[in-house]
Amino acid sequence: MALVNFNIESTSQKVTTEVKARAHTFFVDEPKNLGGNDKGANPLNTLLGSLAGCENAIANMVAKEMKFNLNGIDFKIEGALDPKGLMGDASVKQYFQTLTIEALVDTDESDERIQELKEKTDSRCPVFNILKDTNFIKIQSTWRRK
């Protein structure tokens, strides 16, 4: 199978970035107290949103294959990092040290089937696997019925 390319184009002014992806436009920005215009989520929150969106998209594909009754998933994702790394302290890593993922699955399926959906989704989600495969980020992920 041939590779599929994904691409964006962006323009930036100071810390505000306008991103164009296909027919969509969104902003990645910082709050005003950090020099931004607060036109969009910051880069790290955008990454966490990408994780939620990717997990949801893959879960819906997997649910269809499993004949799993999936009405929806609500995600709460928290990434923790030491900001000293972002500020230039070379002794501190600049990336998330931990990720905590809580998924509330709207379904009447059993707990075992929910875990099967989680495992299959995690194994196929590109964003989840990019983060997991760094081997530097401790990921705690819990999926349960809503």
Automatic annotation (TrEMBL):
The record's listing under InterPro entries reads:
KH_dom-like_a/b, OsmC/Ohr_fam, OsmC/Ohr_hydroprdx_reductase, OsmC/Ohrsf
Q: Which Pfam families match?
A: OsmC
Q: What is this protein called?
A: Putative OsmC-like protein
Q: Which organism is it from?
A: Cytobacillus oceanisediminis
